[in-house]
Amino acid sequence: QKREGEFDQEINLLGGDIYIVPEFKGTNLFEYVNAFILILKEHPEYEIVHGHMQSTAAIYLSVAKKLGRVTVAHSHNTSSGNGIKAVVKNILQFPIRYSADYLFACSKLAGEWLYGSRRVKNNEVEIIYNAVDIETFRYNKQIRDQLREKENIDSSIVIGHVGRFTENKNQGFLVDVFHEIYRHNQKAYLLLVGNGDTLPDIRKKIDSLGLKRQCKILSYRTDIPDLLNAMDRFVFPSVYEGLGIVLIEAQKMGVPCIASAAVPDAAKISNLMKKIDLDFPIAVWIKEIEDFSVEGIQYHGLEEWDIRQVVKKMEKLYEE
């Protein structure tokens, strides 16, 4: 059954086509493979199959390769998580390094995790940073004031986070940190943006800690630059992370960022970002969140993230 994705409307408006394949359950391998065969046979004009869904990439990229297509695997993560599902994913993903014609990754760490450090060391993995429309992320006090007024945010410090509500994004830890901050600063405010499986649990946690009035959760939004404008600190406590593109956006907006040590070093594009180990006491996180400030922002390598430059790089790779 088709479930509408967050970007379906945008893809359709831009002239893209969306094809639905069955969800892979292990027991429906034939059905899953046959769905890709049908699509590719009906559309011989699709010369390249670029796989971003890595859990089953070894399956559908192998199908594409047998049908004479050029195949690209793209790593976007550094872990499969925990439990039995993670073990199954790791087994399914291992052959990717041998079944794809080209190996891409959003960071060196993501490349090493999926393809092995040797492939990265031998320059067999193309690092493609997730693109950002750099020009849209500029601080604007007027927008900041308007959004705070619209969302009824009247606080001395707004701590923000943008990301899907999943176990690896670790929003529960952030709520715990904020709870301690709020104990001695009743004007502190937590702004969470996103949607996902763990959202109901996070809502319950906020309620149980008596933080409902000081926390706001905004579901899927398209005005991320405006929301980042309203934040004083951006906190990103991921358990594991392929890159963390929103950290690039937050830094470009001029927001001091505190991230977990699990975030790849590539995400640090300025002196606006600090990394802290999740094993450190909450008091360490609180001190950095409250005290971290920068005089004179210094950026480096911004052009590598600029969507205009990344698009040119992708076009060149496809042509080659």
Topology, element by element:
Blueprint: H1 8-13, H2 29-42, E1 48-51, H3 57-66, E2 70-75, H4 84-93, H5 96-99, E3 102-105, H6 108-115, H7 117-121, E4 125-127, H8 141-150, E5 157-162, H9 171-184, E6 188-193, H10 199-208, E7 215-218, H11 224-229, E8 233-236, H12 245-253, E9 257-260, E10 273-276, H13 282-291, H14 307-319
Parallel strand pairs: 1-2, 2-3, 3-4, 5-6, 5-8, 6-7, 8-9, 9-10
Helix pairs in contact: 2-3, 9-13
| Biggest β-sheet: strands ordered side by side in the sheet | 7-6-5-8-9-10
**Structural class of the helices, strands and pairings?**
alpha/beta
Query: If helices are DSSP runs of H or I spanning 4 or more residues, what is the number of helices?
Result: 14
**Anisotropy-based shape:** globular
> What's the story with the biggest beta sheet?
6 strands, parallel
| Radius of gyration, in angstroms, nearest whole number | 21 Å
**What portion of the residues fall into strands of 2 or more residues?**
5-15%
Could you tell me how far the N terminus lies from the C terminus, measured between alpha carbons in angstroms? 37 Å
Task: Tell me how many strands there are.
Answer: 10
Average pLDDT for all residues: 91
Helical coverage, percent range: 40-55%
Write the H/E string, N to C. Answer: HHEHEHHEHHEHEHEHEHEHEEHH
Low-confidence stretches: none
